[in-house]
Design a protein that fits this description.
The complex is a heterodimer of chains A (about 425) and B (about 290).
Chain A: H1 2-19, E1 31-38, H2 45-58, E2 62-69, H3 71-83, E3 90-94, H4 98-103, H5 116-121, H6 124-130, E4 131-132, E5 135-136, E6 139-142, E7 147-150, H7 152-157, H8 167-179, E8 187-188, H9 195-207, H10 224-237, H11 250-258, E9 264-267, H12 271-275, E10 289-291, E11 293-294, E12 302-303, E13 309-313, H13 320-330, H14 333-338, H15 354-357, H16 361-373, H17 383-398, H18 404-416
Parallel strand pairs in A: 1-2, 1-3, 8-9
Antiparallel strand pairs in A: 3-13, 4-5, 6-13, 7-9, 7-10, 11-12
Chain B: H1 4-35, H2 53-59, H3 62-93, H4 100-112, H5 115-125, H6 132-139, H7 156-180, H8 185-193, H9 198-226, H10 230-235, H11 247-257, H12 261-290
Classes of the chains: A alpha/beta (about 425), B mainly alpha (about 290).
Chain lengths: ~425, ~290
């Protein structure tokens, strides 16, 4: 008898294994979608959940489950879920991932299903990164670049009435700010070993007239690339760059700039509203200037590198039509205009809307300019690995372990060997 | 021929063996099979068999060897610090003093803190702008200006190691304290009567008594430290300039960032082999203790 009870207990222990596989069943006429987004300031999780709630109200037969992860986990989670039998229906995709996802056949071709209003109304720059081999595989959700944020009050105190017109002038201003003890470290950048470092570097690469690759896809960083890195290293060696930059991400530099401990930084558009928000910053509106990064003297006027993102339907979605409906709703002009506080819309017409411009005319003007000139980081299927190699080697130069030339030569060699 | 009793116990153990086989044995076999192929993260359906190529490439990969060095240094520093600190604290807590029970209870706190929480906590403590460590050292006059602990190539790994020691020394202390409580007072008293000093009593009575328990703690901690992942991932993600990239983080990056599942599996198998060697030491230590 006792042995029988013991055996039953053993079997009972196994029951949870089977129970774990059960799922609450939904009414059969309701279509369920899973969306993977990013935990970020703009659009925030709350924003996306509110948009989603409105979408579900308008489409009672569709239930959308949203999930959010930090940027650093977004790609891996998308790939792993896709590789399993539990793929998401719609996902947020960084512009540098489109080529990789498309090469793996993960994205639904939506070219034929995009309403004309979208094709005509969305900024042309948006379709550039969501179009692969002539097919549209995503909807632009936000266009962004790293803008140059500066503190006009500090510049005035140092005797400068206008924003810098070139990289060289910006450095001269930084030297004056330090010499006059207005700020100890005039510059702060997000140079931690992460994608943010590549974004900062690639903006300066643009400013010096360079590019990661030539037209044939060969990596070419031996001239302008070296200049851009030498520039960052010289800022550090001169004591103009906050030394903590090497462990900073975007939110860290926002905090440093917002406490008045830097005069110049590069960051995404979302920082504009937060930098003068009393709940988030010590700065007043007049202390925050924003512009497109100026180029190097005699090379170019301005420089911008895309940091945009789009929404895609994944090929494994069981309900691709409903998933497309959902992402069309999220990128619609009405929704984007409603939630434009921290993120500018992708619709051309929005930029002429006085209510969108109000209070951020400088950001809108900078955005218009940036979107017309911005370049993209390497569009290659193995971008993540390439980026990781550059991150490591650029940091090696910033730490002074290698010269910028040597670091970039080694990085390019490693990338070529992949 | 097995007795009826033995068969019955085997039957009772069968569900557990089945579960273990399903959740440990099968994935291990699958990982090994994967390591012999060139499987990509999103191309699991059409891998090619490459034999031991992934292993050969892996053992010649400078990045992986560097990562192994980081794991080795991490394990060496962290475990030796924890053993010394843990034993010292256990000796102190074995002495009678007021509030001893409260301090003993507090000892468990660092160990009870989840690793990710501990990592986030230490990130805040090390913060270069408002971190408590900078503030403390600055106010005591040890620093002229605040330091970027996790952002400097020569301090990041040591900073992570310190955070790990803070969390795990208490495990060693608890094991050592439990062992000390089984040491008969009469032995210490007899040594005192014979004129043995404090060092001699520790060297010839306490330490030999502690060694079997410390051996177990040592091997357990080495195994944990060699496969360190979470605390580094949360605190530095392997940066700056890969200075804190451990072997486990390398494996993760190879499999998921670089999408090379086959190669990642081979690195993981190499890691498992190293850990199995350590487990062999552990089992040997245990059997000695039993003797």
């Amino acid at each position: 008898m006792k042995k029988g009870i013991a055996l039953l207990l053993c079997l009972a222990c196994l029951l949870p294994m089977f129970a774990a596989g059960t799922k609450e069943s939904a009414p059969s006429d309701v279509i369920e979608l899973r969306f993977l987004g990013m935990a970020q300031a703009a659009y925030s999780e709350q924003n996306v959940n509110d948009m989603t709630a409105d979408f579900m109200k308008a489409h009672p037969n569709i239930k959308v489950y949203t999930e959010f992860v930090p940027y650093e986990e977004l790609r891996n989670k998308t790939l792993l879920a896709y590789g399993s039998n539990n793929s998401y229906d719609a996902v947020l995709v960084d512009d540098i991932w489109f080529t990789e996802y498309d090469s793996k056949g993960m994205l639904v071709d939506i070219t034929a299903n995009i309403p004309k209003a979208y094709k005509d109304g969305v900024l042309a720059g948006g379709w550039n990164f969501t179009t692969k081999k002539g097919k549209i595989v995503g909807l632009p959700w936000f266009l962004d670049t790293m803008y140059l944020f500066y503190n006009p009050t500090m510049l005035k105190a140092a005797g400068y009435a206008a924003a810098p017109k070139s990289v060289e002038e910006m450095v001269e201003m930084g030297r004056a700010l330090k010499a006059k003890k207005i700020v100890e470290y005039p510059f702060v950048f997000s140079l931690a070993q992460a994608e943010a470092l590549i974004c900062v570097y690639s903006n300066f690469l643009e400013a010096f007239g360079g590019s990661f690759q030539d037209a044939q896809g060969n990596y070419i960083l031996d001239t302008s690339g070296v200049q851009a890195l030498e520039f960052l290293v010289s800022l550090k060696n001169e004591g103009l760059l906050n030394p903590n930059s090497l462990e900073y991400l975007e939110e860290d530099v926002r905090r440093v700039f917002s406490t008045g401990d830097a005069a110049f930084t590069l960051n995404w558009g979302y920082m504009h509203a937060l930098a003068s928000d009393p709940a988030e910053s010590k700065l007043k509106k007049e202390d925050v200037g924003v512009m497109v990064l100026p180029g190097a003297k005699g090379v170019k006027d301005s420089a911008a590198m895309s940091g945009s993102m789009g929404l895609s339907v994944l090929s494994k979605s069981k309900n691709p039509n409903e998933a497309l409906q959902y992402i069309l709703y999220l990128s619609s002009k009405e929704v984007q205009d409603t939630y434009s506080n921290l993120q500018l819309p992708v619709w051309t017409a929005s930029y002429d809307d006085p209510s969108i411009q109000a209070g951020r005319e400088d950001l809108v003007a900078a955005a218009k300019k940036a979107f017309s000139i911005m370049n993209v980081r390497p569009s290659v299927p193995n971008y993540q690995e390439v980026s990781a190699i550059f991150q490591q080697h650029i940091q090696t130069a910033l730490y002074g372990e290698k010269t910028p030339k040597q670091a970039l030569t080694d990085a390019v060699q490693k990338v070529k060997a992949l | 021929m097995a007795s009826r009793g033995t068969r019955w116990y085997t039957l009772l153990l069968a569900p557990m063996i089945l579960v273990m086989g399903a959740v440990i044995g099968w994935p291990l076999i699958q990982t090994f099979v994967l390591s012999l192929t060139d499987t990509q993260l999103m191309d699991v359906s059409a891998p090619s068999f490459v034999g031991f190529e992934n292993f050969i490439k892996g053992l010649g990969n400078q990045g992986f060897l560097d990562a192994l060095k980081v794991s080795g240094l991490f394990a060496l520093v962290v475990v030796s610090s924890e053993m010394i600190l843990g034993t010292g604290v256990a000796l102190l807590l074995n002495e009678p003093f007021r509030g001893r029970n409260l301090v003993r209870a507090l000892l468990i706190l660092p160990w009870a803190v989840p690793t990710t929480v501990n990592a986030i906590m230490w990130r805040l403590i090390y913060n270069p702008e408002y971190g408590a460590l900078n503030s403390l050292l600055f106010q005591l006059g040890f620093l002229d200006s605040y330091i970027s602990w996790l952002g400097s190539a020569d301090k990041a790994l040591w900073s992570v190691m310190f955070a790990d020691v803070w969390k795990n020394f208490s495990l060693v202390a608890m094991i050592a304290l439990a062992s000390l409580q089984t040491l008969p007072d009469s032995q210490i008293e007899a040594a005192k009567i014979d004129g043995a000093g404090a060092w001699q009593r520790f060297r010839y009575i306490t330490l030999p008594h502690l060694i079997p328990s410390l051996q177990v703690a040592l091997v357990l901690r080495i195994i944990e430290a060699v496969k360190v992942f979470d605390i580094i991932y949360v605190m530095t993600k392997g940066g700056p300039a890969n200075k804190t990239r451990s072997a486990s983080i390398f494996v993760y990056q190879e499999a998921f960032t670089n999408s090379r599942m086959g190669s990642g599996a081979a690195y993981a198998i190499i890691m498992v082999s190293l850990i199995m060697i350590l487990i062999a030491f552990y089992i040997r230590g245990l059997s000695r203790k039993e003797k």
